[in-house]
Amino acid sequence: MGKVIATFNSRNQAEEAVSAMRDKGLNPEEISIVAKTAGKKGRGDMETGGEMGAMDVSEGTAWGGALGGLTGLLAGAGALAIPGIGPIVAAGPLAATLSGAVAGGVAGGLIDLGIPEDRGRYYEEEVKRGKILAVIESDDESKLDDAVDVLKEYGADDVETH
Question: How far apart (Å, rounded) are the C-alpha atoms in residues 56 and 86?
């Protein structure tokens, strides 16, 4: 199975790209999105000792809801606390991988998907910095080619095929 991975600087870019990929025939189970949510004053951030229960997850919930409403990924959208990163929202197949391997963080989830460890760690750092991660998985090479084109068209950075 081939994979395309990329980052976005804005939620809007990511939402528009996911919508465009859906229009090109990619299915919800082929698209994953991971984004750090902005906890207020570090609440919920595992690095500052905050507790997930104290975090205001309204932004993450709204993100997941908007993403789900726009792209049909709502069933896979959820908020997680990742040690070393803090609160994130994830949608698509990667969300399930991350919830099962929270200790491994985003890099661990990407490694589980077959992304090389050094690249997984790079993308985890990008999520820590506030970028939005998109991962597309498909057996259909033409869908992967379409995904690359759409990601680039909507301003994605670090577009890679694995």
Answer: 12
pTM of the model: 0.77
129, pLDDT greater than 70? yes
Nearest 5 degrees, angle CA 85-CA 112-CA 110? 45
* Range ranked top by mean pLDDT from 79-93, 95-109, 122-136: 122-136
Instruction: Give the number of other CB atoms < 10 A from CB of residue 75.
Output: 12
Reported as a single tens digit per residue, the pLDDT across 27-66 is: 888 999 998 876 543 333 333 333 333 333 444 455 555 4
**Neighbour count for residue 98 (Cβ, 10 Å):** 23
Q: H-type helices in 24-91, by residue range? A: 58-71
Mean pLDDT over all residues of the chain?
78
Count the helix, strand and coil residues of the chain and give each as a percent rounded to the nearest 5.
55, 20, 25
Residue 153 DSSP label: H
Q: Take residue 21 and report the two structure tokens written for it.
A: 């990929």
| 28 dihedral zone (left: phi>0; alpha: psi -120 to 50; beta) | alpha
Contact call for residues 53 and 2 (beta carbons, < 8 A): no
Helix (H, G, I), strand (E, B) or coil at 147: helix
Are 161 and 29 a contacting pair, CB within 8 Å? no
